[in-house]
Each structure stands twice: as structure tokens, then as C-alpha cells.
Design brief:
With 324 residues, the chain is of the alpha/beta class. The protein has 2 domains: 187 residues, 3-Layer(aba) Sandwich (D-Maltodextrin-Binding Protein, domain 2), CATH 3.40.190.170; 126 residues, Bacterial extracellular solute-binding protein, family 7 (D-Maltodextrin-Binding Protein, domain 2, 3-Layer(aba) Sandwich). The longest helix has 35 residues. The protein is globular and about 60 Å long.
Length: 324
């Protein structure tokens, strides 16, 4: 009996130690997001965090921080490179500063439709860039939908001519700056969280973004005139610190990739529904939306593809446009 009792005690100790080791192995991580909770990319973040915990059997637990709680997009990209933050969901634009080649996705009128964009992103070109950001100590896990971007302002926008001379807020990235200059406006790089006050006080006359950002950030309250030109279909990207990713087992690395694939499908669906809702909300608030003459916008920005500093993009532009 004593031997049986001792054996049971040893079994209990082993189980207890195993449980402790499992708890000790759980990694509590941060995920940075500039948008508010409830925004489609934030919903995609939460789905990714939920699935990551599920597929790693609790070994990776992710806390999402919304509304730029951990800093601007440029700030969190730098912190993720260093491993201070494990995950961040950002626009392509701030990643350009650490890996310039990915800027090709920021070029205007690169994609001709939502379907074309996702064929590229899900194909070898998109996967190349997810792998290539490792040069910047980041690992690309996948993309999120961000819709098409349009110009909006404090004054009516009926055509390209109405942009002339306006101070337009752009993302702090070279391509949007060059694009707005070619359109005859003055580019003004400002962090996303500062755009509302800049519009309200007249520091800038207008900005450019997708419908959900225009509405959820309340930009439509102070810049109610939008011209629907769809100049950019710039995807969002979710990256993880290479330092952190390399510390994971191969199984957990694959679990994160699987979680992101499923979160992407979830987020695209959430985006499409949310975009329609935001458009109707803007119209109900009296916002004025005009259809642009796309051809005149395309002609105005065409020289951007031939700028010397954009030579690195040329082979990719040709491959992207050839994707059917």
C-alpha cells in the first residue's frame, strides 16, 4: 500500500510540474493597432489573437491595444523591429521606411479592382513581400483589407481642379507625398491621430483615406466633401517581431500563420459590411460625395512610375499589372 501511495504521490508531483511548465511556457504578447475597437482591422486583430491562442494551445496569448495606445504607426513598427512589441497591424506606408521595396503597394492606381488586388496579395508576389520584410527584422504574417482611398476636404471637391493648391494630409511616406504633388496640391505629412484637429483648425484643407477611416475618426464632421477617385488600394499588413517569431517552435510559427489566414478571410468580410455602413452614415450626415473622372487623375499621377527613386518598383509593377 505504501508503494502505491508513493507512486500516486509521484504522479501528482509530475502532473503539477508539467502544469507549471505549461503555464511558464505561455507567452503574453502585445499587438498594436491605431484604429478603435470595433473597426474592421481591430476585429481582424481580435480574431487573429483568438485563433493564435487556440492553435498554439495557449502558448501564445495576445493582448490587443487599440487607438494608438502604444504609439503611432511609425513608432510601433520600430518597437516591433526591436522586439519591444511582438505584433503590430499597420498600413504599408510606415513599413516603407524600414523596407522600401514594399512601397510598390502604395503606388496609385496599381490595382484595377478588389479582386485583382487579392489575386496579387494571395499569390507569389504578395507572399514574396511577407517573407522579404525579414530584412527589417519583421516577419509578415498576412494582409488585411483596407478598401480604396479617396480625397476629402473642407471645401467642395468636384474635379481634379478643386485639389489645386490645397494642403492635403498624407501618410508620412514618400509615395503619397509625390502623388499629391503631381495632383497640384501641397502634401502635409501628419500622424493619423492628429488629422482631426489639423482639419478642424485649418492646418490642412483636406486628407485622403478610405470610407471607414473618414467616418470613425470623425474627419467627415470637419471635411464633409469627398471625391471618389479610388487612387490607392493599399493593403494593411500584420507583422511580428522576427526576434520573437524565431523564439517559437516551428509548430507555433505555423499555428500563427494559420491563425492569420483565417483572420484575413474574417476581416475582409467584416470590412465589406462595415464600409457600406459607413458610407450610408456619411450620406445621412449630409456629406457630399462626387464621382471623380478617374482618367484625369490617372493621367496626372502617371509620371510617378518614372521617378528615379521609384526605379526599384518597375519590375513589380509590370508583374502586378500582368496578374489576371
Amino acid at each position: 500500500m505504501k508503494k502505491i501511495g508513493l507512486l500516486l504521490l509521484m504522479v501528482v508531483i509530475v502532473i503539477s510540474l508539467s502544469g507549471s511548465n505549461m503555464l511558464a511556457a505561455a507567452k503574453i504578447c502585445k499587438l498594436a493597432e491605431v484604429h478603435p475597437d470595433g473597426y474592421p482591422t481591430a476585429e481582424g486583430d481580435k480574431k487573429f489573437a483568438e485563433l493564435a491562442e487556440k492553435y498554439t494551445n495557449g502558448r501564445v496569448k495576445i493582448q490587443c491595444f487599440f487607438n494608438s495606445q502604444l504609439g503611432t504607426e511609425n513608432d510601433v513598427v520600430e518597437q516591433t523591429k526591436l522586439g519591444v512589441i511582438e505584433f503590430t497591424r499597420v498600413s504599408i506606408a510606415p513599413v516603407v521606411s524600414v523596407y522600401p521595396e514594399i512601397g510598390v503597394f502604395s503606388l496609385p492606381y496599381l490595382f484595377n479592382s478588389h479582386e485583382h488586388q487579392w489575386k496579387v496579395l494571395n499569390g507569389p508576389i504578395g507572399q514574396h513581400f511577407l517573407s522579404a520584410v525579414e530584412k527589417a527584422n519583421l516577419v509578415g504574417l498576412g494582409y488585411f483589407e483596407a478598401g480604396a482611398r479617396h480625397f476629402y476636404a473642407r471645401k467642395p471637391l468636384n474635379s481634379l481642379a478643386d485639389l489645386k493648391g490645397l494642403k492635403i494630409r498624407v501618410q508620412p511616406s514618400p509615395i503619397p507625398v509625390a502623388m499629391v504633388k503631381l495632383l497640384g496640391a501641397t502634401p502635409t505629412p501628419i500622424a493619423y491621430g492628429e488629422v482631426y484637429s489639423a482639419l478642424q483648425t485649418g492646418v490642412v484643407d483636406g486628407a485622403e483615406n478610405n470610407y471607414p477611416s473618414w467616418v470613425t475618426a470623425n474627419h467627415y464632421e470637419v471635411a464633409k466633401y469627398l471625391i471618389e477617385d479610388g487612387h490607392m488600394r493599399q493593403p494593411e499588413i500584420l507583422v511580428v517581431s522576427k526576434k520573437f517569431f524565431d523564439s517559437l517552435s516551428k509548430a507555433d510559427q505555423e499555428a500563427l500563420r494559420r491563425a492569420m489566414r483565417e483572420a484575413t478571410a474574417f476581416q475582409i468580410d467584416a470590412w465589406n459590411k462595415y464600409e457600406s455602413k459607413m458610407l450610408e452614415q456619411a450620406k445621412a450626415k449630409g456629406c457630399v460625395i462626387k464621382k471623380a473622372n478617374i482618367a484625369e487623375f490617372q493621367a496626372a499621377v502617371a509620371p510617378i512610375f518614372d521617378l528615379p527613386e521609384h526605379k526599384i518598383y518597375k519590375p513589380w509593377v509590370e508583374r502586378i499589372r500582368a496578374t489576371k
